[in-house]
Write a structure and sequence with these properties.
Length: 356
């Protein structure tokens, strides 16, 4: 199970420790990803071990293993995205070729599009076809040699640097986001290890314990060069599913619709306060099985008049007060009803004043 969370409202010392650990591990993580991408298809177990040995003095053997594995996973993810991009280009080229082969304004079917509507659109799509073919050729060449294009911190944020005014960011704000996105502070779980991992542990009471890299041992506030941070750590997939199940619909009202993210926030808040995610507890088993007897009686299949209308019972429509047994059952005039004055009481209009 993967646990990913955001840490907020931390103590100043804990926040400073996390910043320094993330920044310290982010630099070797960037270098290792560059080395992994440079190896391309020639990467093997010996190259992996060599990268890990280079990172160990800067962190620790476990942190070095986490960094190298994250780099390999990122390279593998880029390869899968590259294949999906190639397949998308192939599908687009096939569609454009088919539509270019049809006469203008020819109608299409359910599974195949028709021809283009004008000569201008036909010529524009013909030029588009050449562009896609060039991109496909380049993508196939990169895949054959194992070249991938990865940006630590995100390509979108990197491009935002060129148009800061439209993004409503200053240079300092962009730099702060860029450095934070390139930090590294994660580790995979290990089977048989208590609380998930020797590097990052999440205890049952929500405390995160981190094994500090060797150069940052002075930040330790727990035994064995560790730092303990009291946070609420939850599984995002679990809270999204349970929040949508129990809170998304009750919180939705016109004209605003509650999202799964907002419902998950409610689930996380209830977990933090020690409450169950469900809106209410399950009724007792006796109430579920109706041990006290059926509250309504159903007529059997052979009962005469079973399909007839139910006889009307006079009196108040409540199960707690029998008919004609209420406090004011005998005197209906004692009850204030808005319709009674108009139906049973005498009403006379006063004379209109003729002078002020």
């Amino acid at each position: 199970m993967a646990v990913r969370t955001r840490l907020k409202q931390l103590a100043p010392a804990d926040e400073e420790a996390l910043r320094r650990v993330g920044a310290h591990l982010g630099t070797p993580a960037s270098r290792d990803l560059k080395a992994r991408c440079a190896d391309a298809l020639a990467h093997d177990g010996e190259a992996w071990a060599a990268r890990k040995r280079e990172l160990t003095p800067l962190s620790s053997p476990r942190w070095a293993g986490a960094i190298t594995k994250a780099s390999h996973d990122q390279w593998a993810l880029s390869r899968r995205c590259q294949l999906a991009h190639i397949q998308s280009l192939e599908a687009g080229i096939s569609t454009i070729r088919h539509r270019l082969s049809l006469p203008l304004r020819e109608k299409g079917g359910r599974r195949a599009p028709g021809g283009y509507r004008s000569k201008q659109e036909w010529h524009a799509k013909a030029r588009r076809l050449h562009v896609l073919q060039d991109r496909l050729e380049q993508a196939r060449t990169d895949r054959d040699v194992g070249v991938v294009h990865v940006v630590r911190g995100g390509k979108h944020l990197a491009r935002t640097r060129h148009h800061l005014p439209s993004a409503q960011l200053t240079g300092a704000e962009w730099r702060q986001r860029w450095e934070a996105e390139r930090w590294f502070l994660k580790a995979d779980g290990e089977s048989g290890k208590r609380f998930g991992n020797e590097t990052i542990r999440v205890s049952a009471d929500g405390e995160v314990s981190i094994k500090l890299p060797a150069p940052l041992k002075e930040l330790a506030n727990a035994p064995h060069d560790r730092t303990g941070i009291a946070v609420i750590a939850v599984d995002p997939a679990h809270t999204s599913k349970r929040g949508a199940q129990h809170w998304q619909k009750p919180l939705t009202h016109e004209p605003r619709k509650t999202t799964r993210h907002e419902a998950a926030a409610v689930a996380i808040g209830r977990c933090a306060q020690g409450h169950p995610v469900r809106r209410r507890t399950t009724p007792p088993s006796a109430h579920q099985s109706d041990v006290q007897g059926h509250r309504t009686v159903q007529a059997g299949p052979g009962t005469p008049g079973r399909e007839g209308s139910h006889p009307r019972i006079p009196g108040p429509r409540t199960r707690c007060v029998p008919p004609d047994c209420g406090a004011n059952a005998g005197n209906q005039s004692a009850q204030h009803r808005s319709r009674r004055s108009a139906e049973h009481e005498y009403w006379q209009q006063d004379s209109l004043p003729l002078s002020p």
